[in-house]
Amino acid sequence: MESAASAVDSIPFQVCSGEFTMFRFRRQRQSSSILRRGAAAVEMAFVLPVFVTVVLGLIEVGRGIMVAQLMSNAAREAARAAIVDGSTNTSVANVAKTFLASAAKVSANDVSVTITTGSGGQVSAAQPRELITVDVTIPFSKVSWLPPKYLAGKNLAATAAMRHE
């Protein structure tokens, strides 16, 4: 013998206040899903600009770190060129500028190279064991992929120092 609960479950439609309950539940489910779609659109409208800003900020920070590392390598290569006999300030600056032009796709005109030595700044007049310092500077606006707002006017810099041979 069937229980009362299983008998009620087997009835396809129940009449309640002159209306089919199956249709009433379907109508309620449909209206709540429409409201949920609207809520999802509002949530996306709030979250999407923040998410895009964070992603673009991460890309810019990553680009800045990458270029700073390449500048460090360029300064090191220029310092290695400077410690060898027969090098000049122009040839040392060209080493750094060429390195950054090929590695970071930065125009040579945007790169500033400063060479300091103990003998007045000329690499060709440097004495053995004299410290030669190469400073490389690039404005952040020249390496940024986005219009610079927060770091406008800031420079990326790298320094390398070696003793003349």
Protein architecture, described:
This protein is α+β, with helices and mostly antiparallel strands. The chain has one domain (27-163). The protein has helices at residues 4-10, 21-82, 89-103; strands spanning 15-16, 19-20, 112-116, 131-139, 155-163. Helix 2 (21-82) runs antiparallel to helix 3 (89-103). The longest helix is centred in the first third of the chain and has 62 residues, at 21-82.
Task: Annotate the secondary structure layout.
Elements: H1 4-10, E1 15-16, E2 19-20, H2 21-82, H3 89-103, E3 112-116, E4 131-139, E5 155-163
Antiparallel strand pairs: 1-2, 3-4, 4-5
Helix pairs in contact: 2-3
Features:
alpha+beta; two-stranded antiparallel sheet; 3 helices
Lateral strand order in the biggest sheet? 3-4-5
Radius of gyration: 34 Å
Fraction in beta strands: 15-25%
Count the DSSP helices: 3
Distance between the termini: 105 Å
